[in-house]
Amino acid sequence: MSFLKKTGKVMADVIPGIGKFTYDNDTGKIFVTSGTGVVGFRVALSLLEAGHKDVRVGVWKGDRQGMDKSFGDNVAEKLEQMGAEVIEFNWANESDYAFALQGVKTVFCTLPHIEGWADVFPTFLKTCKTQKNVEHFVKLSFLRPTHDFKGVAQIARMYRDNVPFVAFHGTCDDLLEHAKSDSRISYTILCTSHIMSAPLLIQGKGLREDHKYISASYGMGVNYVSPNDVTDAAVVVLLNQKPHRNKVYNITGAGPTRDSEIVELLSRRYGSPIEHVQLGFHEYKADVKKRGLPEWMIRDAASMERMKAHGLDEHKSSYTKDYFEITGHQPESFEGYLDNTSCMRPGLTFP
């Protein structure tokens, strides 16, 4: 599922110039906050495959829209078989935080898109500081302004100004960057462009059953990055922490991908035609609302689609070399992501 398993390479091949790989002494027990998530599951499994057995994974077993009720149990079983310590973890339940962080030195945090998300991260980070055993915190985020890539910085600011969930991530990143001033916690923030799984998941039943792909990007190319690439970068910075402490990376794809290209790939994957339904912004927002999603999720999904339609990702300056610098490898294509079925979460054959 991971780059390691997929290619048969060892960790020294993944980290450029490292030679013989040895784990950081400071890595310790790693807590992965969202083991049922697209990236969280991949990271937990990849850590175990790479030989780091001291992995605790938080799994939420509640009901998920459009998913079998056994999904959480299936994920937990798979991770336990690989050697993970799996615990129930609910972001909405503050009482879970302290227990999850006991004996943990390193945290890998992916924030789920849940109601009340604006409250959970500050409280979780405060608990990390209170516990005092947490020394390093790796967080997944959306593109963030840095001095290295001015084009990305401009795009990141526009997303933060126009998409509520991106703005929230930015605020959380600010809090994490300042954590070292009143605690022993260092950080690595892995900021990504649009993750390839996101548009497939938001399509929901319309894609799975009606074979329709609905978009409002007006034919513009989008900066999609594979969750497998995000995972490989995360594993490197988790297991070789020293050179990546207190750094922010922007992980992007290789270039723009249009929705029409995705539909063509999906049609081949399904073995039957997928209809591409192109809507205007307001029509798209109304369609998302019909899917039964809550208002806060509709707002974020529609805002993200509107940003895609600006065509910002068409520019070469939208792409960075951070993924290559971390792993020494080129980004995975959308086709490669769809072909890599072994990395999918148990019980979810697509996406």
What does this structure look like?
The strands form 3 sheets. A 7-stranded parallel sheet has the order 3-2-1-4-5-6-10, with helices on both faces. A two-stranded parallel ribbon has the order 7-9. The chain has 16 helices and 11 strands. Helix 3 links the parallel strand 1 and strand 2 (55-59). With 351 residues, it is of the alpha/beta class. 44% of the residues lie in helices and 14% in strands. Helix 3 (38-49) packs across helix 11 (227-239), helix 7 packs across helix 8 and helix 13 (281-290) packs antiparallel against helix 14 (295-309). The model is unreliable at 14-24 (pLDDT under 50). The two termini are 14 Å apart.
Biggest sheet, in brief? 7 strands, parallel
Share of residues in strands: 5-15%
Rg from alpha-carbon coordinates = 19 Å
Let me know the average pLDDT. Answer: 86
- Order of secondary-structure elements: HHEHEHEHEHEHHEEHHEEHEHEHHHH
